[in-house]
Write a structure and sequence with these properties.
single chain, alpha+beta, Thrombin, subunit H, six-stranded antiparallel β-barrel, 12 helices
Amino acid sequence: MKFKHRWFDLPLTLAVGALACAWPAPRTAAAEPDPRRDLVVNIVERVMPSVVNIQTAEIVEYRDPFADLFREFWGPYYRNRPRGTRFSLGSGVIIDEEGYILTNLHVVRRASKVTVRLADGREFEAQPIVGTSRRDVALLRLIAPAGEQFKAIDFGEDNDLLLGETVLALGNPFGLGGSVSRGILSSKNRRPPIESETLEIADWLQTDAAINPGSSGGPLVNLDGELIGLNVAVHREGQGIGFAIPIQQVTEALSEIFTPEVQKSRWFGARIRWGSDTLRVAEVDRDSPAAEAGLQPGDRVKEIDGQKPRSFIHCMLLLAADHELTRLRIARNGEDQALTVKPGTLQDVSRLRLGLTFQEMDNLLAQQFGLPPGQGLIITDVERGSPAAQAQLEAGTLVVAIDGQPTSDLLGAASLLVGKKTAEPTVLGLLAEERRGVFGRLRQVQVEVKAR
């Protein structure tokens, strides 16, 4: 049956329709926030993809300042591990989307092979890049397919630390998944750093957030989700007391150990510090290519060869690019300036400081000296009238140590010589042949050369 409106029904229909339009619609109840999803949960979800587990295939035994800590933390797991299987040492944190990872040096120093497990369960082999025992910081890079990008953590400001603020210690111990502990910042570092001295408890951040075994090398973050420290260990005699390397020491260590010289053996001659959103020149070597170009401490790096560095790691990769000239745009005193740097070689450092040129010892040279490869550097040239010439050094001499430090490559020699001041003595350890009748032997002698 079909119903039709009759003409006298129309006013009633319009009235009912108007009344329906005027009547307020029923309210929809607003979704109540989940009381469990607080700020800490959100921070953990944001940061945890950057936290990794670090595993090793082999451990080489030797004694160092961290040996006791190593055995205390991982002794039971170390002693009972099946032969030939991986052994999980600690954690790390991704600091660049290209797959660069920050961890403690004592976590990876004993490893002959490093495997990294991400928070999502994927595994990659990692290549150790560089480390420093003085600050216990190491840098690794994931060996991943080209174009693969990873979730990187944000860095906090160097001195933006509030005593008593809530902090989170994150890790991925033993590859079993993420670990989180919560506490407060109990103490900041309590003494100024001393040059060439190994850092210890007095230099670290203290927190009551538990740093679990295997979480060493993981990040300590604030409630902005920013990295403010690198977890080290718990105090062996103090209950609930943990320590972390402050972010200022972490960024200082990176600026010292990850340079264009480390990557491509090109002498740039300046250290650049990483802030939360700035790349600032911290130090410039005298007579270096950077100094010759006019770069100064305090300059802010804005562009390198037309590209804006997105991070400290990206900045170093751009500076290490194989270009004859490197063009910089820097900011100084509020004004932009253009500078052009012509990178040198690591041999330039020893030539400028001492007047001699080194060559790394290859297999053929090692056979001639009857030594394993990598046991020293060969002097290939001595500049006439130089400090090296005045010390009666000659080409063909084998240098095995500089200032008491074993020297096996050009990078190591350059790092020891680059900061020398004029007239500062440099002690070279040389291997000289000592003959007794028809028999001869090599012995080490020391020669002092003053830097120029």
